[in-house]
Specification:
Layout lengths: L8 H14 L50 H12 L6 H22 L3 E9 L2 E8 L2 H11 L7 E8 L3 H47 L9 H26 L4 H20 L1 H16 L7 E4 L2 E8 L3 E5 L5 E5 H6 L2 E3 L5 E10 L5 H13 L11 E7 L4 E10 L5 H19 L16 E2 L10 E2 L44 H12 L9
Parallel strand pairs: 2-3
Antiparallel strand pairs: 1-2, 4-5, 4-8, 5-6, 6-7, 9-11, 10-11, 12-13
């Protein structure tokens, strides 16, 4: 730039300010600038053309401008349209970005594994290289397995080494122990309150059971009261446990415990099926009460008196004084005969007489004998009937009733047998033992000396031997020299028919001395 004439500094500054405001566009370096020297005002410089917008010339391959040209509106519009079209991303760039994102996620996972220390991941040419240390071989293998999940990786070079320094191996373990100890210390107050709540619920359950369902000596149905008492205590105790678990934020444990209890219950049910069956049978028997203590029963092929009913078995004392334990399942399923439930019991006496004896007198004699026997009830009356006709005897059957609370059944029956036998002997009614007649059939033939056939000889069967004398009938050998008939001796003392309480006394002693449970009403 060259000056046409000298000028003052204020004029120059004003010119520069005016040029920056009016003509912000580029100024050609070759345009000369002329200033008036005296007036301080601008004149139109020689050779300066009016400013118009210019566009940069396109650059060549070297990046240099090739020249300046006036912009064309059509070309400018086409260029803007080309720039507005979206360009498709490079697939290789996308895959590289995905691999890098997977590597970042892998590093985040490694940082959360306590067994991996200072693990670094390098991805180069789709080959993943792992370096660092691991506390165990399992952690090293686990790191390689996680790295193999990175997409578009052809090889994993696992250079992780197993740490052998004891302090570094123990450091994560000590950290975990410290965290657990800290959590345990924070949990101790809740645990103490929960234990106090559980203990208080059990104490309250115990006293509530005693207060609502008290035990009374000699009460009827003690098992039912005890069952209700246990149910109440269980409900109160379970409520306390649930509240304690809620306080300790361990309610999720209830579902796990119930599930495990269900599976365990099924397994136990199959393994201890007999025990469970006996226990359930004991519960049902205690509810039904088919017998009472000291009842004379016959069940499962065993006869005796009831001692007690436990949760698993029924204890009998046989008439010989022996203890018999019958499983409750057998008692529940078998046919049971209770001889004590009805105090009146019928006894039967069977006697056989000779076939040639008159039946009616024998029946009347036996019936009259039982009617006058001590211990035999008048009502129902004594009955007498013919039971069967045998080969050598006629069987007569007499029956009477005994009140077992006043007389012993076995003693009365024994006295009836003895009295009927003595009455038949006194009346001359024969009661012979069984007789069997044997007839020998056979024949012979005499053959003459000349070989001719001899006529057969008749063979007569042997005569039937005379019937032996019946018992009580005198014979020549039994007849005394004074020709007097023998009579049975009279019983010097009356028979004792009082109830036998020996077994009952043994049962009472057994109950006093044993602490075993009893589910029977007393």
């Amino acid at each position: 730039m060259r000056a046409a004439a000298p000028f003052s500094l204020p004029v120059l500054l004003g010119f520069l300010a005016l040029g920056s405001v009016v003509a912000p566009g580029p100024v050609l370096a070759d345009a000369p600038i002329h200033l008036q020297p005296s007036s301080g005002t601008f004149t139109e410089p020689l050779g300066i053309q009016p400013w118009q917008p210019k566009t940069e010339a396109p650059a060549d391959a070297t990046g240099q401008l090739t020249g300046l040209q006036e912009p064309q509106p059509e070309a400018q519009t086409a260029t803007e349209g080309q720039q507005a079209e979206p360009q498709e991303p490079d697939p290789e760039v996308q895959r590289a970005a995905a691999r890098q994102a997977s590597v970042d996620d892998l590093l985040a996972i490694y940082r959360r594994i306590d067994g991996l220390l200072d693990v670094e991941v390098t991805l180069e040419d789709r080959i993943l290289e792992l370096s660092g240390t691991a506390l165990s071989q399992e952690d090293r293998v686990r790191a390689a397995e996680l790295a193999e999940r990175v997409p578009d990786v052809v090889w994993v070079d696992n250079r992780i080494t197993v740490e052998t320094d004891l302090r570094r191996r123990l450091a994560p373990i000590m950290d975990r122990l410290g965290e657990k100890a800290e959590r345990a210390l924070r949990f101790i107050p809740s645990l103490l309150v929960g234990l106090i709540l559980i203990g208080g619920s059990f104490v309250a359950a115990y006293f509530a059971g005693r207060w609502i369902f008290p035990s009374r000596k000699g009460e009827q149905g003690p098992f039912h009261r005890n069952l209700l008492r246990q149910a109440l205590r269980g409900a109160i105790g379970l409520t306390g446990i649930l509240l304690a678990l809620e306080l300790m934020d361990a309610t999720a444990l209830v579902g796990a415990v119930l599930g495990a209890a269900g599976v365990f219950g099924i397994a136990v049910g199959f393994a201890f099926r007999d025990i469970v069956e006996n226990y359930l049978s004991g519960v049902l028997l205690s509810l039904r009460q088919p017998f009472a203590p000291s009842d004379h029963v016959e069940l499962g092929g065993h006869e005796g008196r009831i001692v007690r009913l436990t949760g698993r078995e029924t204890i009998l004392m046989t008439l010989d004084g022996n203890h018999v334990r019958v499983p409750n399942a057998t008692v529940f399923k078998s046919v049971m005969t209770n001889f004590t439930r009805n105090p009146r019991r019928r006894f039967v006496v069977s006697v056989g007489i000779a076939p040639d004896e008159a039946i009616r007198p024998a029946l009347d004699a036996g019936q009259a004998t039982l009617e006058g026997l001590p211990g035999v009830l008048e009502t129902p009356p004594v009955s007498a009937r013919v039971q069967a006709l045998g080969d050598s005897t006629v069987e007569l059957r007499f029956s009477g009733w005994v009140d077992q609370t006043q007389a012993d059944f076995l003693k009365v029956r024994s006295g009836a047998l003895k009295a009927v036998k003595e009455r038949f002997e006194a009346d001359g009614i024969q009661t012979p033992p069984p007789e069997y007649g044997v007839r020998i059939l056979g024949g012979g033939e005499v053959r003459p000396a000349d070989g001719g056939r001899a006529a057969p000889t008749e063979s007569t069967p042997p005569a039937r031997p005379d019937r032996p004398a019946a018992a009580g009938t005198p014979t020549e050998l039994d007849t005394p020299t004074d020709s007097t008939a023998r009579t049975p001796p009279a019983d010097p003392s009356p028979a004792d028919i009082s109830p036998d309480t020996t077994i009952e006394e043994e049962i009472e002693r057994e109950i006093r001395e044993s602490d075993e449970e009893d589910l029977l009403q007393r």
